[in-house]
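User: Here's a chain of 482 residues. Predict its fold as tokens.
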Amino acid sequence: MTTPPALDTAATTTHGAKLSRSLGVGGNVLITLSGISPASSVFILGGAALAVYGTGVFWGFALAGVISLLIAYCYAELGSRHPIAGGDYSLVSRVLGPASGAAVFLISLVTLPLIVAIFALGVADYLGVAIAGLDPLWTAIVVIVLATVTACFNIRANAWVTGAFLVVEMAALALLAVLGLVHVERPITDLLDPQALDTATGGLAPLGIAGLVLAITQGIFSYNGYGGAIYFAEETRNARRSIARAVIWSAVITVLAELVPLTAILLGADSLEELFGAALPVETFLSARSGDAITIVVLVAVALAIVNAIIAIALQSGRLLFAAARDRALPAAVATPLATISPATRMPVAATVVMGALALAACFIPFDVLLNATGSTLAFSYGFIALAALVVRRQSDAAARAGEDLTGTFRMPLYPLAPVVSLIAIASIFVIGILDPAQWVSLGIAIGIVVAGFAYYGLYLRRNPGTAHLLAAEDDEWEPAK
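Assistant: Prediction complete.
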């Protein structure tokens, strides 16, 4: 019997549960982009950035796009080398070791349900333009329940559902871009000198370097999510080759889908002073250019985009908990049911439902606490990914010298430029957080989560070596593409 090719090796499991390898690159990208939700990022994060950083958003989001693409290269090489469900946790634990993996697992375990709760609590604000009197809490609860149920369907069905929603939100972004570019009020050279609204005078004033760096930080946060493609590695055909393409395509599309409409708004707004001074800059621009009726339709589309993001994040959350349970990084009594796969849908239903329940519970946490708890964790996650990207190349070279077949794996160009620049950018974010007292609570919570993760490893996993068993890529079962 001939040995099957290594190209499709992708960590199905050694515990008998198999996810359905039925996604192509396109299906993976559809779900990943849905989790990013470019439309809600433009309206919520982009709008907030316009109000604070003015035309600095152009440079800030452009430079953030470059940094995001560099981080995407890190994800791509890591995911190609270890195409295993579980996202950041699976990558970091296999490259940097189980201690770092435990820290990243706890970051994701805490933040993913909180992000779902934040998104869900915001649905009523946008859906309320069409349906008056919606209660934010009950709307969030209904949305999370429906999203969790949907996330338990088979992965191809979820790709179709999220893809349909994604078309709607991309159309909304295309409309914003067209409205700005058909009535250009100023040349693009006006955006090269970053200026923000001076609340004291009501006019524009130069944006300092600190403000520009903060705009970059906002852009990085707005683009976040392209690494989510890794969560679906075990459900993607030809994973070693395909997963890198899914990550990079998701990052490129996200940057363009957000940067182009924001730039169009800056070029097409009648008055930059009025735009930056508006409570909701993007909605204000849309209403002025298209009228109230179209604005309502677009805001409903944004609400659907948020719901779509919740479905996609619910899919990612389930795979995080499933992967950790399958790795035996949890106590056996908990891990056994969470590591099961539904025979009907070939989905980690139990893990998905548990993460949905955590998101429901998070809806009852005060909103400012939710924001503080998620604010600085992204920088820690990216830091671990960049460090892992520096290490994985040496591991891959050593494996190749030892005779391992790495055909089809992705190797980022200009190594080690991407991880080094990413680490410098992340270090800058930490410095800004330390210097800004307003960020101390968020930064403190993030540090506390990371410390708790290392403590969990030291106090439990390390003391129970028979419990923890990380699946190594070379131990994975081979499953032919379907």
